[in-house]
Amino acid sequence: MISIALPKGRLGRAALERMGGADGACTLEGQGRRLVLEDEARNIRYFLVKPSDTAIYVEHGVADIGIAGRDVLLETRPDVYELHDLGFGRCSMAVAAPTGWHDARNAPLRIATTYPTCAREHFDRKGRQIETITLHGSVELAPLLGLSDVIVDLVETGATLRENGLEAVERIFESSARLIANKSSYLFKRSEIDAVIQGMLETPASAGIDA
Ligand code: PRP
Asked: Where is this gene product found (predicted)?
């Protein structure tokens, strides 16, 4: 049996559309709050976990493979193989600020983010001193309330920024969903893992994916 760590939410639904095969044998519909799904026909078990945690399950070998955003991989640097860019879940990591803001550079820049490592690496490259404030959601609120000057966060459609009077002032990198594998699983179960991946790569991206 192959175990797969899937991110809950939109990335996970898109992933299951691909992994469940064209016949949609395994879906999240009607699964309620269950966190383990079994596709007995394909001998696959899915674990539904927080998007930021999939790589932890894979790195520790309790899942053989998983799906993680490139953003999470760059932030946490897990010791796993990154096998494929799955092409969905596309977004950018950006610096965003209240519309019209400019950096007066007279004090360390206060940055609210869920990605303190990515933020620090970016501003170290530019030689700009920063202070990071780590938040776990609704990061866009921070500059509105004076908690930070700017944010470093994911932007997909840009709607959250626009609706909160913010704008992207710099793109740091592009992200998308990546297929990752545990290193020893990939050594010992390579043919089973490759078969699962092959099925996923052959499923058209447009097959009703709700991402
Ligand atoms: C993500 C991200 C932004 C938003 C961007 O948050 O952190 O807030 O999506 O998407 P948009 O550009 O299409 O508006 P998510 O919805 O995952 O919730 P969160 O605020 O709890 O992180």
From this structure: Cytoplasm
Is residue 108 situated within a structural domain?
Answer: yes
Model pTM? Answer: 0.90
Tell me: do 59 and 136 sit in the same domain: no
Q: Which residue's structure tokens are 């010791």?
A: 79
Q: Could you tell me if the CB of 162 is within 6 A of ligand 1?
A: no
Residues spanned by the domain of 85 = 2-89+175-202
- In a domain? residue 207: no
| Nearest C-alpha neighbor of 179 from the set 55, 79, 86 | 86
Instruction: Please provide the size of the chain in residues.
Output: 211
Atom 17, ligand 1: which residue's CA is nearest?
Answer: 137
Per-residue pLDDT of 100-147, as tens digits, reads 999 999 999 999 999 999 999 999 999 999 999 999 999 999 999 999
